[in-house]
Amino acid sequence: MAARRWPPRLWTSSSTVPLVASLGIIAVIYLAGAMSSWAYPAAALAALSYMRPAPVAAQDVDVQWYPSSQTRVNDLAGVLEGSGVWDFVFNSSVTPDGRYGVYNWCNMPHVRSSEYVKARDGFTLQYVEVIQRHHKRTVYHSNSFPVESYTWDCDDQGLYGYGEPFAGNRSARAYREGFVSPINPFQPSGFRGSCQFPQITEGGLDDSWQHGADLYGVYHDLLGFLPGRDGEYRDKVKYRVSNNLITSQVAGMLINGMWDTTEPFPVMSEQEGIDFLAPQYSCPRSSSLFNAIRSSSNPSWRNRTALTGSLFSTLDALSGVPPNDGGWHDTFDHYYDNLSARQCHAKPLPCRLVGGQNSTDCFTQDLADRVYRLGNWEYSQIYRGTPESLAASASSYGVWVAHLAEHLREVVAGTGETLYFHNVAHDGSMSRLMSVLQIDEMVWPGMGAEIVFELYKQDDEDAAPTPQPTPTGIVAPGCSRNNCLRQVIRQSASASSFCPGLTTSASTAVPTWAANCADAAQLSSACGCVVQPTATTTTTPAPSQTAAPSESGFYVRVLWNGQVFRSASPTLGLMDMVPVETLLAYFDGLVGRRASLVRANCA
User: Fold this and answer.
1) Strand order in the sheet with 27-28
2) Beta strand pairing status for 563-564 and 578-579?
3) Could you tell me which residues come within 8 angstroms of residue 263 by beta carbon, excluding any fewer than 6 positions away?
4) Of 189, 224, 352, 432, whose CB has the highest number of CB atoms within 10 Å?
5) Residues in contact with 306: Cβ distance below 8 Å, sequence separation at least 6, in sequence order
6) What does the DSSP 8-state code read for residue 475?
7) Which residues make beta-bridge pairs with 422?
């Protein structure tokens, strides 16, 4: 049965974008399989009523929901029966250079000069907008166990927070120093110690600084796009944070990493309750749709609930969490945050407390891994697993999307003065945006996860980008998804002729197109990892782009994990030089010009 699509085909291009499976020997990185469909009438009707006719855009495009590829992340049977967490990292901010690009919950991959692939010749970068999740932190208080077996102290940093008039008396650089009173009879539940719960840890602050330094290394040192640190950059760059102080903690370190300044620097924030970056504005329809996805009316979620009851019982017995606490059992979010925050900071997994003392009955790595696998499955299901997910995300994140669209329009019109705009946000922000863009493989965006929008101007008509073929091979399970393999995937034309005759002798030279491969043995391993689907393998065809060239000469490239973003929508496809008119029409169709559809779509 064909997967249902949302919404009805209300917007179609004058030359309908066909879904074409183009040929190639190299494929998307994950095992493909048949997509199942969902049918729960109440939520479906709510989603179908979501859209209103949009104002006429410069270009009409398809804004329907399309399913993501079937992968190890959204395969519930594999998630429940598997072991480990694929090649994901949960215990360190450091990813070895040879593996950089793999999912690291503690410090997600971002744009770096060593992996960055320049846009093709004939295009000049005009504008960059970055949105990222904050970096690693202590656990939220609400995600602490009722009684924790050890303390968590943050005496290695200061949380600076003070006001100072721009003209007049100066302020001391006051910072909050956490302490635990020995005589206060009112003690908190959960973690005790000098930390705030949450706050960005010393390690998270260092990761934030390095993130900023890496961005400067690409957009100034490598591309020459940003002004120098001794130049007039303050009027050309902007930073935006949410009301949650952890985003400001990240922004301060990131700005210093980029600009090597300790001088006062403004970061934009919006009033609490209507902040669209977090987001915080009221959107009842979105909440209703998300609740329906996370309910028994969704067969996939109902199946997940039936199959995880015993796991929750085991977790509750070890943690002391009451079995009737709905917040801990609606999703695996609380357990995921609690365990991953410990492991990212090299803290031990906890043990069951008996009489206030640790027992020998402890959380194992296998238990933690099961939580991590299920957490990623839940995010995939909530944000990409049903047609309703697009409606829920587009309404609740539509105001931010509309602001991005306006920023792009201003640059195209020649009225934009900002070169670089950086947003520091949350996992809910990133997930909704990934849903709006219909990412082909949804995961839970980890600490520091980043999406970059690069706007380019075509230098001449001959440089117009050609549609990129959508490859159809798959990567064998168990392969190391390192930079060598990624380069083989990107260089599919060269690999198709080179790999069949490759030998692994020490004298075999590595070709220049595979410079990320250390030697012939690593290149041979990458070649061997790429396989063709057999006749019995069913795949969900990924879209191929057939968009007309940009009328304005402006194109958008979108990066996720430092690599080109792949959308399941045929309108967007592999987001490498998408005509800006296409992207703007897609946004307008979902949220309206200047967010004109959002209020009605949230009602």
Assistant:
1) 27-28, 473-475, 530-531
2) unpaired
3) none
4) 432
5) none
6) E
7) 130, 239
pLDDT score for 499 = 82
User: Residue 561 — left, alpha, or beta (φ > 0 → left; ψ -120 to 50 → alpha)?
Assistant: left
Instruction: Confirm if 441 and 75 have CB atoms less than 8 A apart.
Output: no
Kindly state the helix (H) or strand (E) to which residue 327 belongs, with its residue range: helix 326-329
Beta strand 450-458 pairing with 420-425? unpaired
For the chain, how big is the Rg over CA atoms in Å?
Answer: 24
Tokens 């809910």 label which residue? 428
Tell me the pLDDT tens digit for each residue of 516-539.
787 887 888 778 776 443 333 333
Q: Of 98-107, 193-202, 469-478, 562-571, which range is least confident?
A: 469-478
Instruction: Please enumerate in sequence order all residues whose Cβ is within 8 A of that of 304, keeping only pairs 6 or more positions apart, or say none.
Output: 76, 374, 377, 378, 381
Burial class (CB in 10 A: 0-12, 13-18, 19+), 555: buried
- Residue spans of the domains in the chain: they are 286-384, 483-502+512-529
Query: How many whole angstroms separate alpha carbon 8 and alpha carbon 589?
Result: 12
Amino acid 59: pLDDT: 67
Q: How far apart are CA 433 and CA 575, in angstroms?
A: 14
Percent of residues, the chain, with pLDDT higher than 70: 80
Task: Identify residue 344 by its one-letter amino acid code.
Answer: C
Residue found under tokens 């801990």: 328
Please state the separation of Cα 227 from the chain's center in Å. Answer: 28
User: Tokens in use for 310?
Assistant: 């015993």
- Tell me: cis bond preceding 198? Omega within 30 of 0 counts: yes
**CB-based contact 144:189 (threshold 8 Å):** yes
To the nearest whole number, what is the mean pLDDT of the chain?
Answer: 86
Residue 84 in tokens: 């480990």
Question: In whole angstroms, what is the distance from residue 333 CA to residue 335 CA?
Answer: 6
Alpha helices in 440-491 (DSSP H): 483-490
Length of the chain: 603
pLDDT at 26: 35
Q: Cβ neighbours of residue 581 under 8 Å, at least 6 residues apart? A: 58, 59, 550, 551, 552
Q: How confident is the model at residue 506 (pLDDT cuts 50, 70, 90)?
A: low
